[in-house]
Each structure stands twice: as C-alpha cells, then as structure tokens.
Task: structure prediction
Amino acid sequence: MTCTATFSGKAGRPVYFGTNTKMYKTIAQTSDFLTELDRLTAGLSRERLTLFVIPSFTALERARRCAPPERILLGAQNMGWADEGQFTGEISPLMLREVGVQVVEIGHSERRHVLGETDWMENQKVRCALRHAFTPLLCIGETAEQKEMGLSDEVLRTQLKAGLQGVTAAEAARLWVAYEPVWAIGTAGVPASPDYAEEKHRVIRQCLTEQFGAVGGAIPLLYGGSVNRENAVQLIPRPNIDGLFIGRSAWEAERFAQIIRDCLAVLSAV
Ligand code: PEP
Result:
C-alpha cells in the first residue's frame, strides 16, 4: 500500500525514520529495497518527515539512483577521518561525497564493541563529517553491564562529551544523535521499554543542552534497538523521542513503510 497521508510533525517538530542495513543486502537487493520503499512512501509529505537508509558501501552508488535525495536521505555506515592517506580499508569523506551520501553514521555499537572504536575516534569522525557538510548521526548507548551497575547516565554523558569535543553550537545544529542501548540491539537484544527510552532521551537532551544551549535541545534524538511494529507506536509519541532508527524490522520495504504509517497515524491522533 502506498502512503499518501500528510503529517504535521510532533508538536511542530520533525520526525525521523531510518535504517542501517549493516553487512546485509547486495547491490541488487539494496536497489530493490529502496525502489520499493520509495514507491511506498513517495506520497508522504516531507515537510516534517525525514526518511533515511544506510546501506553497504558497495551499494551506495546504485542506491543513490533508486532513492531521490529529496525523499530518502542516503547514509554511510562509517567514515575515516582523513580526506586521503595510508588508511587501508577506510573510506574517505570525499569518496562518500562523490556518491551522494548525506548522512554519516558514527559510533554504532558494533563499531565500538566488536571493532574496537573509541570515543576519541568517534570524535575525529564527527568533526570530519561536519567539515565535509555531512549530517553526522552519532550513536551512543550503554552496555548491559554498565546498566546493571547504574552507570547508564554517566556513560551517555561521557560518550556525548568525548564524541562532541570541539564541536561548536553552529555545527551541532547539523547533528543527529541515536540512543541505542547495546543490550537492546540485534537478535539477542531486548527492546528498551518506552519509559526507559524516554528517560534516557531526556538525559541526552539535557546533556546536549548543557553543551550547546538551545541548539543542543533541538538536536534530533532517535531511538534504536529492537524496534518493531508493536513498540514503534509506543515509542514515537514520547516527548524526547524524535525518531526511530530501525534494524531488522525495517529491512523489508513493506514492513518498514507499515511501521512509518502506524507511527504517523499515532502522531496525527495526539
Ligand atoms: C541497530 O543495530 O542499530 C539496530 C537498531 O538493530 P535492531 O533494530 O535489529 O536491533
């Protein structure tokens, strides 16, 4: 079914829905996914709605041709922090710019906890993304162990302060942040309850406001971690949740479009 509804946003604030396809989907699969997603969502007003998809690097060029930039923003899952150099296996901001990338995902929990990236590295990447006029999507979140020890808020604050070191308020206006508790992500993940997610988003909002003033308070905050059709409609109306960053439940276009439709219906009713 094609979406045609118009939507007025969350009390005037924009709303965001996106997915990172991780190390799934070939070029052909990404192309089919994006073509179908665009067909299903093209009728939605983008006045206060932002959709984005973050496919694998090899699929980016074809993805750009399937997803009109004014309807579906295209993201990269990672980026090196130098324009060029002896960094085997890294990808340069210039290369991402060349294929039409708009958003750069930085610090996904798998980059941090499986591949060993540090807050210092995420900070280099955020600053590089800003220099190159991308929208950095900084992902933060505590592990299960940190949560059990009652350290969640400290961890979030540290990741924000370290990851955004040296970023000016003017630059912060171009930033997005995703709260993705490590224990909530992936097949072994347990989704955060809407109350818990809202509470952590409130902490993040407060920390960003302390760092950047009013600009910080307006930074879009997205929740990610085992979002599905059932919990999406409970998460999205929460005051500090501006959007949903979805993995597995968004990798089939009809399912993703259905979640978007459900959420917009809920928001239109509040
Ligand atoms: C993710 O890895 O960023 C994610 C949110 O995945 P999932 O929704 O599958 O838990």
Observations:
- The longest strand covers residues 15-20.
